[in-house]
């Protein structure tokens, strides 16, 4: 665009940005990339259930803690986690706010994400089943989130005309700057809206990931794999992918303590998935790149278990206004992805994906460290 | 298109047809419609397993039958069924040919469908897992099928740029000519390619219906519902749908003889579905219009059972070169859809969907007659 009779480049850019807001908004955001140390760390925060802050009481803490316990304990835990782990990305996997107890959903969202915003660390969020229980619809919540500082969240992929839900998008994590993987995404992150509740009268219970979303995921995975296996530095397999969404898949029901690390102590059926299977596990296994899935929703489950080559992981409940278990600490999951050290020096593709959890106790105790995936064991799930 | 300096309309049409072949090909085909009697009958033929005709022996018949039994018995059964039932549509649900025993797949296809072709009754086919086991690929088989006379089969929907498989399409059945439903599709038929075998190393067994196909189905169902509920004669609910594909869904495993009509006697696991759930049952329940699903694949299962408002039906094995059970007659399924008689006279929307099977015995004995769906009981699955 040329402003006739002038050469005000800044004005041109501003005008262009007003027209092409989404593109400029994206362009402003610094892309994710592995650091010089060859690792990328993600902090997962599940189920903050934030409401009004100081006036919102805690749930399921010991009676003597009640008087001084509120949403601010959730904030403090998040601040401590960020300080302790210094992640490269913070991912919020839904039920970020408990909107039915919130006086003003927008303010609750602002407060819930405040520690992430002020940390200047990029962050991403998806929706749970409680985020929209106020004046803000699911679309409204997601539209509010994407305007907050430092977030990489998107309402939906710009290229999609029809997709179910709000908060389906992907993020690419580039190789180390100056390395031969500089211009490749070596780690792919998928974020999906697993819905809230069934809208189908004959299907009770929670929502699920729909065909439109799975088709988008499938095409995105294919596109990324195609780029990864193209020259230069053409790779043989796909770059590892991690998927983040709120409601666990029904396939988690087939895991038990003989094949998972962590705790499964949710009341009743154990896994609060949708009551039907919408096939997303099959779609991910078929795509071939996703190595681990990270859910929230079941605050009292915090395990990771391998099924058909994909690690299915919970983070465990984080928020103090969320149901929990007095004496069983609120917790968060950390994932660190390490690159391969090349013979000639420098960093290559992803070598391993590790995880642990931290408890909200005096020392932020680390528990359940485990390797989720490694290049050397790939193909032997 | 205007031919300059001439007025040869025929030439124009021919030229246009050469350019727009698929459209002209469609236009040639007479659309399906309920007859003056207010009913529409579909004959389902599952698993003909046709090969070379007279020289291809039968399987699993009594020893004394072997000498005179061949693919021609399959042909004779099909001819008798067509003559006895006079269906409005014949649907072949895959494993139409047993291509690995076929000398020439194209000839086998021609011979297998010959009774349908010569009956002048419209027919439609989908692929099974055995149709492509020769020089003709799945695409090749489907491309051969769509060129045969009287078929309404399509390789894939013309509007889809990316869809998995070959033989995904839908057919609309219009209301009675001259009635107020003349210009509405009152019955919708969906045909899908359920694949052959898994292409995913970590998933063993049979194929499944992919997200791209489900997304197409979902959008097609939505479009049809939108037309059905639009003026004139705006309807409240969707027009009933019937889905035809080869490999049964894993959900059939949850049915047992307390809630189905027919026989479940397939060896081993009972239901030879894919080893994973790809979500198509959930997608159909969500769409809300499909009242019954018709599969083949398991020759020794022939039951129908209701799950969450959808009847899941087998046809039972039809072909003599297919495995079966000596003494357990080859069989076919008939579905008849009846319209509602209007108070003012004439025909309205669909009132009931009934089914029965016919055995290949002396009298083509009818068994297991049942109502699959009726307007009066809708909403009470």
Automatic annotation (TrEMBL), chains A, B:
Belongs to the metallophosphoesterase superfamily. Purple acid phosphatase family. Residues 40-299 form the Calcineurin-like phosphoesterase domain. One of its GO terms (molecular function) is metal ion binding. InterPro entries: Calcineurin-like_PHP, Metallo-depent_PP-like, PAP14/16/28/29. Its cofactor is Zn(2+). This is Calcineurin-like phosphoesterase domain-containing protein. Coiled coil: none annotated. Pfam families: Metallophos. It comes from the Eukaryota.
């Amino acid at each position: 665009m040329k402003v006739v009779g002038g050469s005000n480049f800044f004005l041109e850019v501003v005008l262009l940005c007003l027209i092409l807001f989404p593109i400029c908004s994206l362009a402003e955001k610094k892309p994710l990339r592995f650091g010089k140390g060859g690792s990328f760390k993600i902090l997962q925060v599940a189920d903050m259930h934030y409401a009004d802050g100081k006036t919102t009481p805690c749930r399921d803490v010991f009676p003597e803690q009640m008087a001084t316990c509120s949403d601010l304990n959730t904030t403090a835990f998040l601040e401590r986690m960020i300080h302790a782990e210094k992640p490269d990305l913070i991912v919020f996997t839904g039920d970020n706010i408990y909107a039915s107890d919130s006086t003003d959903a927008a303010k609750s969202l602002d407060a819930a994400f405040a520690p992430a915003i002020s940390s200047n660390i990029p962050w991403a969020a998806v929706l749970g089943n409680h985020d929209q229980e106020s004046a803000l619809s699911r679309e409204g919540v997601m539209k509010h989130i994407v305007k907050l500082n430092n977030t990489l969240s998107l309402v939906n992929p710009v290229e999609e005309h029809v997709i179910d839900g709000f908060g389906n998008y992907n993020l690419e994590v580039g190789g180390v700057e100056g390395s031969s993987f500089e211009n490749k995404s070596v780690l792919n992150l998928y974020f999906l809206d697993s819905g809230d509740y069934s809208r189908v009268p004959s299907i009770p219970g929670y929502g699920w990931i729909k065909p439109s979303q799975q088709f988008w995921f499938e095409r995105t995975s294919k596109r990324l794999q195609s780029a990864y296996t193209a020259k230069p530095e053409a790779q043989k397999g796909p770059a590892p992918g991690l998927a983040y969404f709120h409601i666990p898949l029904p396939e988690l029901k087939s895991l038990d303590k003989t094949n998972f690390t962590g705790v499964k102590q949710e009341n009743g059926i154990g896994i609060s998935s949708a009551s039907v299977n919408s096939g997303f596990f099959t779609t991910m296994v078929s795509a071939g790149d996703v190595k681990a899935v990270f859910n929230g929703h079941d605050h009292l489950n915090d395990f990771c278990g391998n099924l058909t080559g994909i690690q299915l992981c919970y983070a465990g409940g984080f928020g103090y206004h969320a149901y929990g278990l007095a004496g069983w600490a609120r917790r968060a999951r950390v994932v660190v992805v390490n690159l391969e050290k090349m013979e000639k020096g420098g960093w290559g593709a992803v070598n391993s994906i590790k995880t642990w959890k931290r408890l909200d106790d005096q020392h932020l105790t680390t528990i359940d460290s485990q390797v989720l995936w490694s290049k050397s064991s790939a193909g032997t799930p």
